[in-house]
C-alpha cells in the first residue's frame, strides 16, 4: 500500500520478478495499481513504473478488468509468452531518468 493514511486502501505498488528462461529473467518490475472506491466491481488501473517492452503494454490504455492478483499473474504469464519471452528490453536501472514519470499503461491482456 502506498499511503498509510488511505483508509480506502486504493493506491498500491506491485512487483513482478521476471520469469526464468525469458529476457525478463531476474529483472524486477514495479507497477502502480489504483483501485477506485468501486473496486472490485470495477478493476484497478495499472501502470508500469519500470520500463518494459511487451505486446500488452502501451501508453494509451489501461487494464480495466479483473482483480489486482489476476492482473499481476497474467502480466507474469505474458512475460513468458512466445512473442515476449525474447523481446529486447530497455536497459535496467536509472528509472528516475524516464521522461514520462506516469509510467507505461497496460492494455488489457488477460485471456
UniProtKB/TrEMBL annotation:
What the entry lists under SUPFAM superfamilies is as follows:
UBC-like
**Domain UBC core spans what residues?**
1-111
Q: Which InterPro entries match?
A: UBC (IPR000608), UBQ-conjugating_enzyme/RWD (IPR016135)
Domain of life, per UniProt, equals Eukaryota
Q: What is this protein called?
A: UBC core domain-containing protein
Question: Which species expresses this protein natively?
Answer: Gossypium klotzschianum
Amino acid at each position: 500500500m502506498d499511503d498509510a493514511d488511505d483508509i480506502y486502501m486504493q493506491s498500491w505498488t506491485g512487483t513482478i520478478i521476471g520469469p526464468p528462461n525469458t529476457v525478463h529473467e531476474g529483472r524486477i518490475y514495479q507497477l502502480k495499481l489504483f483501485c477506485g472506491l468501486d473496486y472490485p466491481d470495477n478493476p484497478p488501473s495499472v501502470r508500469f513504473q519500470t520500463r518494459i517492452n511487451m505486446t500488452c503494454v502501451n501508453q494509451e490504455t489501461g487494464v480495466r478488468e479483473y482483480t489486482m492478483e489476476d492482473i499481476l499473474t497474467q502480466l507474469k504469464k505474458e512475460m513468458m509468452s512466445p512473442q515476449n519471452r525474447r523481446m529486447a528490453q530497455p536497459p535496467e536501472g536509472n528509472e528516475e531518468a524516464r521522461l514520462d514519470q506516469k509510467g507505461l499503461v497496460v492494455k488489457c491482456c488477460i485471456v
